[in-house]
C-alpha cells in the first residue's frame, strides 16, 4: 500500500471545494439572477468590479516581486487572479449574496 502525500491530498481537497463552490454559485446565479444593482448602478458596479479584482491581484503581484519567484510570468499570474476575483464578484452579485448581506430592510 502506498502512502498518500498529505500536501497533495490537501491541495486536491481545496481544489474540489473551490470547484463545488463555483458550481453552487453558478446555480444560484442562474436561479436568482439578481441584476437589480447592476442595472440600476452600472458605473458603481464596474468600479466595484475593478477594485475587487485588481486590488487583490496587485497584492499578489507585490508578493511575487518581493520573493524569489519566476518574474517572467507575473503578468499572466496577475491577469488570471484578477479574472478569478472578477468572476467571483459577478457570481456573488448575481446570486443575491450581496443583496442579502447588505439589505438594510432586515
Short note summarizing the structure:
This protein has five helices and no strands. By secondary structure, it is mostly helical.
Number of DSSP-assigned strands: 0
Query: Helical amount among residues, as a percent range?
Result: over 70%
Could you give a short account of the major beta sheet? Answer: none
| Tally of contiguous helical segments | 5
Unreliable spans are none
Global outline: flat
Keyword list:
single chain; 106 residues; mainly alpha; 5 helices; 78% helix; flat
Could you describe the 3D structure shown?
With 106 residues, the protein is mostly helical. Helices cover 78% and strands 0% of the residues. The protein has helices spanning 6-32, 36-40, 42-66, 74-94, 97-101. α1 (6-32) packs across α4 (74-94) and α3 (42-66) packs antiparallel against α4 (74-94). The longest helix has 27 residues, at 6-32. The mean pLDDT is 87.
Helix and strand topology:
Elements: H1 6-32, H2 36-40, H3 42-66, H4 74-94, H5 97-101
Helix pairs in contact: 1-4, 3-4
